[in-house]
């Protein structure tokens, strides 16, 4: 059972930072890894060819362990989710009249590329709205997604939980239906991977793309992707020398190798061997694996669950526990209370949350404790009364 890990971070003691879904703080271990990485370039003579490959492989192995992948060869290193989504979109054979299934208020990085592809190839974007009802909202939304997938569906592009309110999507059922019709399932796992258990062997996506600066507790401008068989032989966005067979032999680089390294190395971003950011990501993944997504999810559940009835009694609305994550929850306002007003109240009390759509989004992690939740609920009470 996880206990509070606030001592592993450097957050101010008077700050109630309930906003990991916006950006995680760096742990002390990750910060130290970054400083050491920056210092490594003080003397470049100490950076040897092996260093260009050692840390990228270590990071891929850790991420493979985290998501249940049998091999790091399925993993690629990215600078962002949008980069990974572009790889997926560029390697799908679209035909006029097909459709792409998306969500209402989906995160923009998993939308704009599909919108452009639809415009260029005359495809239909099917944006699935949630049910207006507050009863069985998650169930109804999932049913609508399943109904939208048909023989003309090119791709289904979804998150694991909705970034505004934490609504869980039944990706096992959605993935099964997508495979029945030959559609690609492209998942943005940024708001879940690291804090919510996920198994690629069970879900069977065609692509899982994750930015590291949220629930992986890593640095900004780093990401990872897992690629299924559909993308095994695709074309990368750029042709990096590091991704070619035999690139470890620097003396032979002038021979211009036509073959990629095996697996998904072909999709690695250029200059992937970032000597500051990658050591940070390695340290962050080691930390998440030590705490485990299961442990983090249960820790967050125990922070939030004692307060759900109180929050509802105040007139606020939130999904039932079974239909959302415990690490990311959207709390919608009672009639007459503006979300911007309560956001200002929170900030004045050093309670950091996010406003997303018509919801206050709370996203705790292991550095939070019950004092943070008491401050949050007291602020809700003050706003209502």
Quick description:
Helices cover 35% and strands 13% of the residues.
Structural class computed from helices and strand pairing? alpha/beta
Number of strands: 12
Q: What is the level-2 CATH architecture name of the largest domain?
A: 3-Layer(aba) Sandwich
Mind telling me the CATH superfamily name of the largest domain?
Type I PLP-dependent aspartate aminotransferase-like (Major domain)
Strand content: 5-15%
Low-confidence stretches: none
- Outline type: globular
CATH fold description of the largest domain? Aspartate Aminotransferase, domain 2
Indicate how many domains the architecture comprises: 2
Q: So how many helices?
A: 12
**Topology as a string of helices (H) and strands (E):** EHHEHEHEHEHEHEEHHHEHEEEH
Helix content: 25-40%
Largest sheet: 7 strands, mixed
Radius of gyration, in Å, reads: 22 Å
Average pLDDT for all residues: 95
Strand order of the largest sheet: 2-8-7-6-5-3-4
Top CATH class of the largest domain: Alpha Beta
User: What is the end-to-end distance?
Assistant: 37 Å
Describe the structure.
It is a single chain. The protein is of the alpha/beta class and 385 residues long. The chain folds into 2 domains: 6-18 and 292-384, Aspartate Aminotransferase, domain 1 (Alpha-Beta Complex), CATH 3.90.1150.10; 38-290, Type I PLP-dependent aspartate aminotransferase-like (Major domain) (Aspartate Aminotransferase, domain 2, 3-Layer(aba) Sandwich), CATH 3.40.640.10. Helix content is 35%, strand content 13%. It is built from 12 helices and 12 strands. It has helices at 28-39, 51-67, 81-90, 112-121, 137-148, 171-180, 200-203, 277-291, 293-304, 308-313, 339-348, 370-384; strands at residues 16-17, 75-78, 99-103, 124-128, 153-159, 184-188, 207-211, 223-227, 329-332, 351-352, 354-356, 359-362. Strands 2-8-7-6-5-3-4 form a 7-stranded mixed sheet, sandwiched between helices. Strands 9-12-11 form a 3-stranded antiparallel sheet, covered by helices on one side. It is globular, with a radius of gyration of 22 Å. 44% of the residues are buried.
